[in-house]
Model the fold of this input.
Amino acid sequence: MPNLESYQDLIQICREYGATLVAVSKTRTESEIMSVYNLGQRMFGENRAHELIIKAELLPRDIEWHLIGHLQTNKVKSILPYVSCIQSLDSLKLWQKLDEEAKEANMQIDCLLQIRVAVEETKYGWEKKELDNMLSSGLHLAFSNINICGVMGMASLTNNTEQVRQEMKLLKDHYDSLKETYFKTADQFNILSMGMSGDYEIALKEGSTMIRVGSMIFL
Done:
């Protein structure tokens, strides 16, 4: 059974901030996901392409699957028929591969640019300067089958809430800068995906439009 009280609280706070909830279902069984689906949740997030594909085959077709973990280029072709949004677009190589496979499949793919703001070395994502250099070159304009819908990022895993807040402020600044400089006329560029179970309240206060929460929902 899901944690009904926590889920309802999350839905309420998302309404207050005009944000969207992605229920992170990594490691969860199909029956656990269905228990949350039956509460009305339709957007779920998975970390691994293989796990997402298996669950998408078994669960209702109206679920919107978001890949929120690192995507290897050799998994791109297999995941495209199942995924609604790839939140972890973190390199030019992946962008090129996604566009290539999307063209082949005659599809448009929604993606978020994953930007690194946390201090941990293990975090994936663009460095902002690297991303600016690529976007200013105009290379991305050739990738016509990829819809860039915003930005995703993760703050450091720390009890220092001020550090978390500053990293989220930085990610919001990056989002605003990219919107103004490169995506000003792109109406679909409107998602700032930041905030998880431990820091979603800070994220919402700092401007998040999408939070990714799992452990608070699944008991």
Remarks:
- Residues 56 and 82 are 6 Å apart (CA to CA).
- The beta strands are 20-24, 43-46, 64-67, 83-89, 109-114, 146-152, 191-193, 210-213.
- The domain at 4-213 is CATH 3.20.20.10 (TIM Barrel).
- The mean pLDDT is 96.
